[in-house]
Amino acid sequence: MQNGLLKGSPACEVYNKLNNNASNSEGCPKCDSFCKEFNNKKGTPKKYPDDFENTCKKILRNLFKLSDVLESEKSASDRCSYLSYWTYEQLWKKLTNPKCKETTESISKLHEVLLKFNAIDELKAKSCHIYLTGSFDKLKEEKEMHDFFKNFDYLKSKLKPVTSEKEKYCKYITRILELYNHHIRDCCTYFLKNSSRNTCEEYLKCEKQYYPYELLSILDCPSKSSYKKQEEFFEELAIDREVILRNRYSNALTCQGFMCDPFRVVITIGFALLGIFFLHFLYYKTTHSGTKSYDDIYRYKNIYNFLVSRDTAFEERLQREHDISPRRGINLSYYST
């Protein structure tokens, strides 16, 4: 495992347990019967690699006793992920040519055997499905990252700026950081409010505290200058980053004026409404008073003209009735005695 760099690490100890149990032929009688299909019978064309039957038995032994062998691992998913990557390593060691027919048929058949074995009564409540899909190159990358994150706390406590193997550790962690950058966008979805979603939990951790750059910083590796620091790196990965930053910018522009002060806004609106009401009142009073004054004057004027015309007519009539003409004498009644 990484040329001895990870010797004594948690992941290394787990794989040692699986290796030891795989070599124990006792305790799993069903394993032999399920793996007989990989026995190349004499007189028939060779279908599977030599001794692939034994490889199958090792895998099934660990699957059968997984919860006992890795009882120190409290999580069933952790136990299963360790067994999965241990199995992948056994396969690429045995099947050196991944593209040949012998390899593809062996993997396909082993996949069938694993499905059937997981269905036995002893494993129904504690099955571990090992998916033999994907290329060996991809599975190797996944195993590297899986083991790194399982050993992260161990490495963090062990590494120091000055160490005799600094160059080897820097090279190893730089390699992991390259893989991490390659996979993280496909596996992790980030949001600016410190939340994330992980679709590759079996081999990669999305939490910020597991960013491999931190170990480069502890060692002060020369390659650390080529990578972004934690805050900048994860901020750029946030899918809602653009929307949030745009809203922040928009709010900043809006709040440069008095509109940011609710009290001033209310006071301004109140005075504006009072001003509008006052103008309406003034307009009403002016218009109504002007109309009333004009009507009063017009009415008084008509009354005056009527009175004047009536007096004039009366005077003219009196003049006609009582006027004494100069040609007319006074008539006296005369009575004789």
How is this structure best described in words?
This protein is an all-alpha fold and 337 residues long. It folds into 3 domains: 135 residues, no CATH class; 98 residues, no CATH class; 31 residues. Helix content is 62%, strand content 2%. It contains 13 helices and 2 strands; from the N terminus they run H-H-H-H-H-H-H-H-H-E-E-H-H-H-H. A two-stranded antiparallel sheet has the order 1-2. Helix 2 packs antiparallel against helix 3 and helix 5 crosses helix 7. It starts with 9 loop residues before the first helix and ends in a 15-residue tail after the last helix.
Condensed summary:
By secondary structure, the chain is mainly alpha-helical.
Key traits:
two-stranded antiparallel sheet; 13 helices; 2 strands; 62% helix; elongated; disordered C terminus; Plasmodium_Vir; membrane; transmembrane
* SS field, number of helical segments: 13
Largest sheet: 2 strands, antiparallel
Helix content: 55-70%
Neighbour order of strands in the largest sheet: 1-2
How many domain modules?
A: 3
Query: How confident overall, as mean pLDDT?
Result: 82
Overall form: elongated
The amount of beta strand, in percent, is: under 5%
How large, in whole angstroms, is the Cα Rg?
Answer: 52 Å
Task: Please tally the β strands and state the result.
Answer: 2
The computed structural class is mainly alpha
What is the straight-line distance between the termini? 184 Å
Order of helices and strands: HHHHHHHHHEEHHHH
Uncertain spans, ≥5 residues at pLDDT below 50?
A: 324-337
